[in-house]
Amino acid sequence: MFGLNDLISLVISAFIILPVVIFMRELGYVIMSAIFGVVNPRLTIGSGPRLFKFWIFDVRKYYHLYSWYSYDDLKRKGKFAYVLIYAGPILINLVPALILNALIANDIVTEYETFWNRFLFYQFYYVLFDIVPMKTINGMPNNGMIIYEMLRYGKRVDYNNEPFIPSTSEVEEEYRHEMEELEEQVEEMEEAAEDMKETSGNKGTRHEDDVDEKDREERTTGGW
Question: For bias kind Acidic residues, which ranges apply (predicted)?
């Protein structure tokens, strides 16, 4: 049965453990590419409109399980460089996971064992789906596929002609246009309502004036 303790564990896993593991994974790209002289690196965390940007970190509005690392070029290129860059996310989770697992197995780490076991689970989870060569969303290769193609055929398959995450400028521009169109529609509706109100009021006034004028004419005629 799913109880309160399970709910607390789920919240901890979803909002603490999993984001940390994902951030570590993306950090693997950053560290390895920095070694080979990366040019204009960008680490997008989350999706949707930008919340803020600090250094290379572009933090978006919606939850940061969705992340993406990109760069323009490397100063020191080569097969070895590209292999290590895409091996970085694997190694940065695999090595600490193996060390932590050994510490738990030898009863060196005994406190908060449930927490650390879940941490290990997510680390090995991402290592598994990074290291096994496969195609992911939109047919894009994962890190394992990129490394495999580079080692076996000596070719790069990490090019992405279509941005996985829309650029901040595009997202913000689209959102701004939508809001402007919505505001224009609201203003037009308000103006139309105001015109109808004024027209209705003017008709009522003219009708009353016509009646009063008619009465005055009848009284005048009758008086003569």
Answer: 180-193
